[in-house]
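Exercise 7.
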Amino acid sequence: MELTAIITALVVAVGAVVVLTGLVIQAWVARHSGLPTAVTGLAEGLAARIGRFAGSHCEHWNGWLGPETSTLILRLVLGLAAVALVAIGVGALVDNVTDGDGVASLDHPIARYVSVHRTAALTSVMKAVSDVGGPAGMAMVGLGIGLLLGLVWRSWAPLIVMTVTATGVAGLTVVFKAVLGRARPPLAQAVAAADGFGFPSGHAAAAAAVCGVAAWLCGLRMRSKRGRIAVWAVAAMLAALVGISRIYLGVHWTSDVLGGWAVGVLWMAVVVSGWTALGRISGPRS
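Solution. The predicted structure, written as tokens, is:
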């Protein structure tokens, strides 16, 4: 019961952090309502300068520019900044894993603690979560969400985005595993079968990327800000639970799962930023 309580508390804490962060951001944006206008003005001025520099293309630039474009520029800058920050985090985790220090020093103590506190009931639950939350399972979930949203939106866009998300994060995980070649925990400590290299966890990466992009897509057409926050909180809790299940089952070190979450968030940031740009190039999303 003790380990069950710890896992439940961790998952709930993740959701609470997302909700709190969302409410803080919402309150901050409300208090700084003039900021988007200022950024828009800045972006318009920059693009106008580029247009003047282009000479004969000035009229084209001025016609193309507008509030929508300025907002796009702001979103792309923020998206690229997020990609850069998460990439730095992934690099730091890889450093810890290869050197055996930092967060990697928690691997053995956590594995030992979990191995002596498992229960039959919790093991059954964690196996079920792990089965559904695997790369193949998350791909099916993602495609299902993409198809459902596509029917509601009457557009192929959600299905395309979810397909790119699921396939891309799987490919990225395979590359990292092959390059780093990190061994999994000893099989004697595991209560589930697993093969291949350990870092990063493919389950954690797929869950983070698919749940994150699904939450983003669902929130695009939601009018309620609190509704969007709730969707993000649920997505974060599900991704957290999938990663925790891999540690519980003894098939991944804690740092493997942290790396998986980081890789998943990195790919999510790439997909969201890329689709924001492509959406502007090909016209408004329908």
